[in-house]
Write a structure and sequence with these properties.
two-stranded parallel sheet, about 500 residues, globular, about 0% strand, mainly alpha, single chain, 22 helices
Length: about 500
Amino acid sequence: MAEIDFRNKINWRRRYRSPQGVKTEREILRIFESDRGRIINSPAIRRLQQKTQVFPLERNAAVRTRLTHSLEVQQVGRYIAKEILSRLKEQRLLETYGLDELTGPFESIVEMACLMHDIGNPPFGHFGEAAINDWFRQRLSPDDAVGQPSSDDRCEVVALRLREGEDELNALRCKVRHDLSHFEGNAQGIRLVHTLMRMNLTWAQVGCILKYTRPAWWVGEPPASHSYLMKKPGYYFSEEAYVARLRKELDLDTYSRFPLTWIMEAADDISYCVADLEDAVEKRIFTAEQLYQHLYDAWGEHEKGSLFAQVVENAWDKSRVNSMSRSAEDQFFMYLRVNTLNKLVPYAAQRFIDNLPQIFSGEFNHALLEDDSDFSQLLELYKNVAIKQVFSHPDVEQLELQGYRVISGLLEIYRPLLQLSLADFTELVEKERLRRFPIESRLFHKLSTRHRLAYVEAVSKLSSDDLVYPVLEYYHRCRLIQDYISGMTDLYSWDEYRRMMAVE
C-alpha cells in the first residue's frame, strides 16, 4: 500500500499561469482562496438560484433551489471535513499524513466542491438530462430515418454523412454517438469549469468535483473493482485530454477518484434527504404528522434506543414541547436536521478515516454512507419515503413531464443548425449571417457567445485535411447546442420555449 501523504494530492497548481516554486502554508491557502473567489463569483453558481432541486418553476422562495441546496451541502461538507481533521489531530496523524500545514486547503477544497457539485445540471434536473439523451439518441441513429426507435448497439452517426466503406472511422463514430447520448450533470460540470467558463482552478479543486470516473462513451459493464465509481458518466470525450492530465497531476490511476470527493458526496447525501422531505411539507404534499407516520411505518421494527428513536422520534417528541414559541412543524425539522447531522457526520468522518488507504488511492468502491449500518439505513429511509411520497406525487410528475417537453422542444427548434452541411455551417460561423439561411442565421445569433467561442476553439484545433474532421466538427456542433440549452435556467427555458412556439 502506498504511503499516505496528502501533499501529493492537494495540488495547488493550475493548468494555465500556474504559480511556481515551493509555497508556504499561507501562500497555498491564498491560492485556494483565489479558487473560492472564482467559484463564488461565477455565473454558473448564480444560475443555480433558478434551477430545480425537486419542484420545478417554484414561486415559494422557502422551497429549495439548486443554489440553496448547494449552500446547505457546503455547510455539511465543511462539518465533515472539520470532524475528520479533528479526529486525525487527536490521533496525532495530521503530520503523518502530510496534513499538518494543509488543514485550511483541505476544508476549502471540500466546501467549494460542495458548492459546485450541481453546476452542470440542466433545467428540470434529471428529466432535463433524460430529454437531452433521448433526443440525441434518436436523432443520431440511422433508425430515425424510418421512424423506428434507436438501439444502443447501433453506433452509426447518420448525421455525419460519411462515405460508405470508411470502416476505420467506425470506432470514432460509435464513440461520438454514445458520448452525445449520455449527457450527465456531473460531466457537464467538468466541462463548464474547464472548457466553457475557463475558471483555471487548481488541479485539486477540479479533482474534487470529478464524482464519477466513467467516460461518457463507455460501452458495457465497468470493471467490478470500480463499479460504484463508474456507475454514471463523469466526463465527455471533449474533456478526455484534460482529465488525463488531471489524473497525472493528482497521481490517480485510471478510473480512480480524488480522495476528498467522498466527503463532498456524503455531504450531498445527508443534505438532500432531509431537505426534500421538508420541502414537500412546505408544498403541502403531506403534513409533518403524516411524514412522521410515513417514516415510522417504513422503518419497520421499533426498538427502544434504536437510531430511529434517537433521531426521528426524538425530533418528533421535542417538537411537541414548547411549540407555542415556534410552530411544531419548524421545530420538528430543526431537530430532525440536527439529530441527523449529529449522527451521520461523525459516522461519515470515521468511515473516511477507517478506509483511508483505499480512499487515498482512489479505489474505495463505495459511498461513505453505503454499508449495512443503521446510519445507512436511516439515509435509505429518507430516500425511500421521498421516492414513494414526493417524487411520485401527481403535481411533481406533471411538472417533470412539462420540463421534458420543454427541453425536447428547444432541441427540436435548434435542429436546423445540426442539419446544415459542414461547409454551410462553417460559413455561417465565419460570417454570422447568411441570406440563404435566414432561420439558421437567427438561431445561431441566439447562442451564447461563450458557447460559440468554445466551439470555434475546439474546431480550430482539428486538422481540416484529416479524414475524421467531419466527425469531430459535428461532435462539437452538437456539444454547442447541448451547452446552450443545458446552461439555461428552468424559468428561462420555459419562457424561451413559449416564445419560440409563439404561445405567449
